[in-house]
Amino acid sequence: MTNPNVIEIENVSKRFIIRKEKSLKERLVNFGRSKLHKEDFWALRDVDLSIASGSTVGLVGPNGSGKSTLLKAIGGIIQPTSGTVKVRGRLAALLELGAGFHPDLTGRENVYLNASILGLSRQQTDKHFDAIVDFSGIEQFIDTQVKFYSSGMYVRLAFAVAVHVDPDILLVDEVLAVGDEPFQRKCMERIKGFQHEGRTIVLVSHSLDQVAELCDRAIVLERGLVTADGIPQEALRVLRADFEATRQGEIDRAAARSGVADKPALQAQVGAVALLDERTREPIGSIRPGDSIRARVTVSASPLLQDWMLGLAIDTPIGTTVYGTNTQLLGVRLPPLTGEASFDFLLPDLRLGEGRYTLRLAIEGTNGQEIHRLDEAAHIEVRSDGRAHGSIAVDASFATV
Ligand SMILES: Nc1ncnc2c1ncn2[C@@H]1O[C@H](COP(=O)(O)OP(=O)(O)OP(=O)(O)O)[C@@H](O)[C@H]1O
To answer: Which residues form the ABC transporter domain (predicted)?
Structure first.
């Protein structure tokens, strides 16, 4: 049976009005009536989502893509321009820095104020007060006005309140990142505790590894639109590919500006990549940890490719590189190439853990400039005996001392 939805977002769009300085020409045409002109900006466009009770959802995307706006719409801090947001259950939110705190009140007074906004009576807050202060670790400053708090102290107290009000739904924006490392770890443990208790968590994060580790679903927002939604591995793959396209676009634009773009179109390409058994030279399906394989790479070049190297990387499904090398690092100087040729990377004793890995290949100049890259050149499926997990395979055993 699937869990009921506790958050329903239907067709939500959010428009902000941005005021921009007019150019001198515009001001002259308008007889200087106003220095500003207004422009509509859609921070969210037709977002349709349902979030099931007990799920942990990561909202990811580039800067300015609408993540915080969506979280604020769920938290009821902002109203959508069109569409509806329905939330069932008690909601605690850690949104922007200082939100929900009054700067002139002390930490103690803010705990009571904040908890009452989140639906706790004075007696209930009394009961949790010591635990809140204890969790925050800022006991020494609890009777200081919060306007004198550092951003980390703010977040410590706000998170402590949020997790002690018994919420069904917890919304967490990137603000946690301003806490120091031990506090962030403590927050993560608490969030994991919430997960086990079946509470619903929606978090905004730029740490894709954290989303992959913590969340059972990732939603990618780009320019206010949902561009991917699913299990983190797949959604994050879409996001990383887009980041890569943006990066490449920036490189191309920079090259165009500096005139380097006048070079001939793609001079060389990585073509087919085949994974072969080291001994039999037959194509392989899956391997076991410690097997030896050959990655046979076909490169074509026209007119002439010289001073070049070939690179290979093995990535996990979320794009973390577990191994990478290139011919230069291996001490091999590749000969000039015209036409097509194949090369083998020999990968003996490949001690990868169970899972599906992606092979990435690139042709680069010996000066490091990328000429062509194939991101999903091939996949390596590793099946282990199930005695461990993780990306490396270790022949571990156990002994009592
Ligand atoms: N109150 C506002 N008035 C005008 N524009 C706003 C307002 N709040 C947000 N925006 C704009 O909406 C867009 C989305 O902002 P939002 O904070 O949701 O992005 P984000 O994905 O959380 O970004 P980041 O990763 O940088 O935190 C941005 O272009 C931002 O400038």
So the answer is: 26-248
